[in-house]
Amino acid sequence: MRRVLAVLAVVLALGLAQRAEVSGGSPFGLQGGVRLVLVPFLVEGRLYAGTGAGASGGGVDLLLKLPLTDLYLGLGGFLGTGPGLTLPREGRGQVGVRAVLGTWLNLPLPLLGVFAELHPTYYPATGGLGLGGGIGVSLGF
User: Fold this and answer.
1) What is the reported pTM?
2) CA gap 139, 141 in Å, rounded
3) Which of 69, 74, 111, 123 could form a disulfide with 63 if both were Cys (CB 3.0 to 4.6 A apart)?
4) Please, what's the b/e burial string for 44-80 (b: 16 or more CB within 10 A of its CB; e: otherwise)?
């Protein structure tokens, strides 16, 4: 049921989305989602759902873009099943909180972007800390 709700939230958000994304990395492996502009040129929201390596679920991030750079910082939460794809491996979280440290990689392609991220993660249920990362492709609408 949780997976269905996460996928439904992402599908409904497509109507408001500025970008669609596919990424690989923490917390779930292969992920798909959307980015929404909350404050132009400054704040974005991201909804995602994913599955892979025994873990599946979805989450939301609030991202602050640093002006005049390709960098962004954020904070988010996720809900899922199975082991999180972070180090150390004992981070088995149903619920987690993560920071997002990311950058856009400069490509000369219109409407297409590539990004790389680092995700320090906290699992409240176990008190465990983890570190994950991801790389993805983003298509602007």
Assistant:
1) 0.82
2) 7
3) 74
4) bbbbbbbbeeebbbbbbbebbbeeeeeebebebebbb
Phi-psi region of 29 (alpha: psi -120 to 50; beta: other; left: phi over 0): left
Q: How far is the C-alpha of 119 from the C-alpha of 125, rounded, in Å?
A: 18
pLDDT digits (tens, 9 = 90+) for 16-49: 678 899 999 888 889 999 999 999 889 999 999 9
Tokens representing 49 are 């759902």
Strands 29-39 and 43-52: antiparallel
Rounded to 5 degrees, φ, ψ at 34 are -135, 150
Mean pLDDT taken over the chain? 84
H/E stretch holding 93 reads none
Helix spans in the chain (H): 2-13
Contact 30, 57 (CB under 8 A): no
Task: Tell me how far apart the 2 most distant CA atoms of the chain are, in Å.
Answer: 44
- Bridge-partner residues for 78, per DSSP? 59, 96
